[in-house]
Design a protein that fits this description.
The protein is α+β, with helices and mostly antiparallel strands and 460 residues long. It folds into four domains: 103 residues, no CATH class; 72 residues, Methane Monooxygenase Hydroxylase, Chain G, domain 1 (Up-down Bundle); 96 residues, Immunoglobulins (Immunoglobulin-like); 123 residues, 2-Layer Sandwich (Double Stranded RNA Binding Domain), CATH 3.30.160.180. Strands 15, 16, 17, 18, 19 and 20 form a six-stranded mixed beta sheet that branches. A hairpin with a 2-residue loop joins strand 4 and strand 5. Helix 5 runs parallel beside helix 7. The longest helix has 32 residues. The N terminus is likely disordered.
Length: 460
């Protein structure tokens, strides 16, 4: 009998457990939905937020999702308006930026919400609803505290920027101006008065004015302001570039420069100022190709991308304002004067019309060289010597060979600055005299192609 009762008990226990497992737990559905679900509540002095979430779509976190939606709804009631005295109203940006900026501020409002209260919830098997509210007075109090903290940090940025200016640290000053502005960007639509050292200022305007004044007041001053390369300076010139901010030298300031001309594509070279705010640019080996359009261009080497940071969407229009003065200096090349001394012989007899010296004179003159009659007045003396010789016959033709030499000497120092020599230039004609003249023509052709430009390169 005991065994039978035990068996019956076990069967009932197993069946009971099986029935419990197969039964789905349900939420008792209220008879009436609360009015705030269908008619948005209006409560004086409060921001209201109502949100819901599907239990099927969010089975594990539907209550959290409903809360997020309610707070987002609440935040949308906090309108962003642009004050007439606000920084945003004076910032030179397009309408698209303003719209995007206001949208961003409105969206980010939810991230800073605190002090809100849960008023009510409602749920059934499918949905979960929640109702939050936030006191307008409490919101304004908390926001005012947060704004004041942000303003204090930005005021510190302003102080540091001014200090960096006095020290000539442009990069540090610009960074602090930008960081100070970005640090209070949430309040750009408002009038942001702040007490700084006993004086009431509009902090964002003050930061922006300091930033723009700094960019405007950095001056790049080269000396000399016109570059002349000539024989006296040996076609080399040092240009001293002073970078200063309201008279104070700017140390370690990056510059870039290049010697260029219309149609030229010379690359920029980099240089930095020393502790006295001075950088020295050496001008040498300048090509004649640019003619009267040749110039020295000097620009700031500071890159806008050096000031990237947080809130790039907000920072970008400020970075776009970064620009510094630049300078262009005309560059003139005054080529030296030359005289030519020539001894051109054909088979030992002086030519009546020296061919090589005439060719060289014409080529050098086309490149800008001035010629004087007396070597005593010249900067350089060009000496041309050539002589031909008989070299036998070949198949009924007469052969002559020409040896030619060109030397360029500095008249003052006597230094040999350039030489060219070509031996055994062959001429072939019906007689030796004509063969010698033929060799001269070949020598003149070679000189025309290379000697003139090589002489210019040697003296510049």
């Amino acid at each position: 009998m005991v065994r039978t009762l035990t068996y019956i008990f076990l069967v009932i226990l197993v069946c009971g457990c099986g029935n419990k497992k197969g039964t789905q737990e349900t939420v008792e559905q209220p008879d009436v939905q609360p009015h705030w679900m269908t008619d948005r509540p209006i409560q004086s002095g409060y921001y209201i937020g109502v949100g819901s979430a599907s239990k099927n779509e969010h089975p594990l976190d539907f209550s959290q999702v409903a809360k997020e939606n309610a707070l987002l709804d609440l935040a949308s009631e906090i309108r962003v308006t642009i004050s007439g005295e606000s920084f945003l109203s004076t910032l030179e940006v397009n309408d698209y930026f303003q719209e995007e900026f206001i949208s961003k501020i409105s969206t980010s409002t939810k991230e800073y919400l605190e002090g809100y209260d849960l008023v009510d919830t409602w749920e059934d098997n499918q949905q979960y609803w929640t109702f939050y509210r936030l006191s307008v007075a409490e919101y304004n109090r908390i926001r005012a505290e947060r704004k004041q903290s942000a303003m204090k940090r930005s005021a510190d940025n302003l102080r540091r920027a001014k200090s960096f200016e006095l020290e000539g640290d442009v990069r540090g000053a610009i960074s602090n101006y930008l960081d100070g502005l970005v640090g209070i960007h949430e309040y750009w639509t408002e009038s942001n008065e702040f007490d700084l050292n006993g004086q009431t200022i509009f902090l964002d305007h003050e930061l922006h004015h300091g930033f723009k004044d700094l960019l405007r007041d950095i001056q790049i001053e080269p000396n000399p302001t016109e570059i002349v390369l000539n024989q006296m300076n040996r076609y080399r010139e040092d240009v001293k570039v002073l970078v200063h901010l309201r008279g104070n030298p700017v140390r370690d300031f990056p510059l870039k420069y290049r010697v260029t001309f219309d149609g030229g594509y010379n690359r920029f070279l980099a240089i930095r100022t020393n502790d006295n705010g001075i950088a020295t640019i050496r001008i040498e080996n300048v090509s004649l190709e640019g003619g009267s359009t040749t110039r020295l261009e000097i620009e700031s080497g500071m890159d806008k991308m050096d000031f990237e940071g947080i809130e790039m969407q907000v920072r970008k229009p400020l970075m776009d304002e970064i620009g510094f003065s630049s300078r262009q200096l005309p560059l003139r090349i005054i080529l030296p004067s030359m005289s030519i001394e020539s001894q051109e012989l054909n088979l030992g007899t002086t030519l009546s019309s020296p061919l090589l010296s005439a060719t060289l004179r014409s080529e050098l003159a086309s490149l800008g060289i001035r010629f004087v009659a007396s070597s005593a007045q010249a900067d350089y003396v060009v000496k041309v010597h050539a002589d031909s010789r008989e070299s036998g016959t070949s198949q009924g033709f007469h052969v002559a060979h020409l040896d030619a030499r060109v030397e360029v000497l500095d008249r003052i120092t006597g230094e040999l600055v350039y030489s060219w020599q070509e031996n055994s230039i062959k001429g072939l004609q019906l007689n030796f005299e004509s063969a010698g003249k033929e060799a001269y023509k070949k020598a003149a052709k070679k000189m025309e192609q290379i000697v003139g430009t090589e002489i210019i390169d040697a003296i510049l």
